[in-house]
Amino acid sequence: MKENPRVFVSDGMDGLARRAGRDLLAPLRAAADCRVWPHVRPAAREDLREELAEAEGVLCLLTDVLDAELLAGCPDLRVISSISVGVDHIDLDAATSQDIVVGNTPGVLTETTADLAFALLLTAGRRVVEAGDFLRTGAWAKSRWAIDSFVGRDLHGATLGIVGLGPIGQAVARRAQGFGMRVLGWSRSGREVLGVRGVALEQLFAEADFVSLHVALTAETRGLIDARALAAMKPGVVLVNTARGGVIDQPALVEALESGQLGAVGLDVFESEPIDAEHPLLGFPNAVLTPHIGSASVETRVRMVDLAVANLLAGLRGEPLPACANPGAER
Ligand code: NAP
Q1: CATH number of 110-289, picked from 1.10.3720.10, 3.40.50.1980, 3.30.110.170, 3.40.50.720
Q2: Quick check: CB of 316 below 6 Å from ligand 1?
Q3: How far, in Å, CA of 26 to CA of 228, rounded?
Q4: Distance in Å, CA 4 to ligand 1 centroid
Q5: Which residues belong to the active site?
Q6: CA distances (Å), 1 to each of 32, 83, 100, 196, 314, in order?
Q7: CB 88 within 8 A of CB 217
Q8: What residues does each domain of the chain span?
Q9: How far lies 11's CA from each of 38, 59, 64, in Å?
Q10: Atom of ligand 1 nearest to the CA of 218
Q11: 115 in ligand 1 pocket by Cβ < 6 Å?
């Protein structure tokens, strides 16, 4: 490794380090000249531009947008290590053409994110948040238990359609089998997954009572779930998205909720994050909304940081990354 490569870390992650009981950045501090973003507010675009102007490596979050224009101003950058599996915030083509290797954190967050997807399927299907609010606001105390109060949808016996059969889609399929669901799946590469009936997207939309999205966000998957796709789904379907907000055309989603075409939604990700406090989605009682917490367990977040640090150190040493998102740049 070059002596003291200059590294920028866009978030000190002190809270997570306290929970983990160790300095998660210690291996990085030992091997690099490490500049950690010192403020509580996140690094803005101009801050990133300044901090990365002379950096050789960066440890970043999914909220740090590293597009072609920004990367063009980073002549020394050799490694980008993102603490995420999704890399849609990084221009991979631009990075590759600048010989910058990009690391991500696949695998270590698979089960935790699948748990959240399943939690959203259950919560949206069984109206857990809506019913909880009814109790907390005192409405229950003023009324009574009724035979049709908060009746929702059974998962057992229902058909789940999984869009995208990567690691997380497969982990959701395993959970669905345990719940006695019939599982349909679609992937662009026609992956065969045990216990999942591979079908065309149209058939999945036509037959699924619950749809869960697990494709990476790319130019091809942006807006995959548009007005046409939503209209092709079964009326009353429960739609869950723990992939990326851009996979759904959000205005079309709002319309489908308004019209009743969608029975309920469970959304962990949004076209623009954080979602505006006035956004119409917040007005639907049948929309279960979480602030991008798919991988949010202490153990998993720590595993993600450890893998991202290992990626960064390997890249600085000129070694293959444990997890590389643009293998074309590795030489
Ligand atoms: P992944 O490797 O990121 O991608 C999953 C699937 O995306 C792959 O199976 C792939 O299909 C599909 N895909 C990629 N490009 C495509 C295209 N152009 N058209 C259609 N499908 C395409 O796997 P993962 O680990 O299961 O993660 C899935 C996504 O979940 C991530 O990309 C990330 O954005 C999101 N995520 C969110 C959270 C959260 O906090 N909510 C946490 C973790 C991950 P093939 O198999 O056919 O190649």
Answers
A1: 3.40.50.720
A2: no
A3: 50
A4: 35
A5: 244, 273, 292
A6: 9, 22, 16, 46, 9
A7: yes
A8: 6-108+297-329, 110-289
A9: 8, 8, 10
A10: 18
A11: no
Q: Which atom of ligand 1 is nearest to the CA of 109?
A: 43
pLDDT per residue as tens, the chain (331 positions):
557 899 999 999 999 999 999 999 999 999 999 999 999 999 999 999 999 999 999 999 999 999 999 999 999 999 999 999 999 999 999 999 999 999 999 999 999 999 999 999 999 999 999 999 999 999 999 999 999 999 999 999 999 999 999 999 999 999 999 999 999 999 999 999 999 999 999 999 999 999 999 999 999 999 999 999 999 999 999 999 999 999 999 999 999 999 999 999 999 999 999 999 999 999 999 999 999 999 999 999 999 999 999 999 999 999 999 999 999 897 5
What's the 279 CA to ligand 1 centre distance in angstroms? 26
pTM: 0.96
Provide the 10 A C-beta neighbour count for residue 7. 24
For residues 288 and 13, give the distance between their C-alpha atoms in angstroms, rounded to a whole number: 28
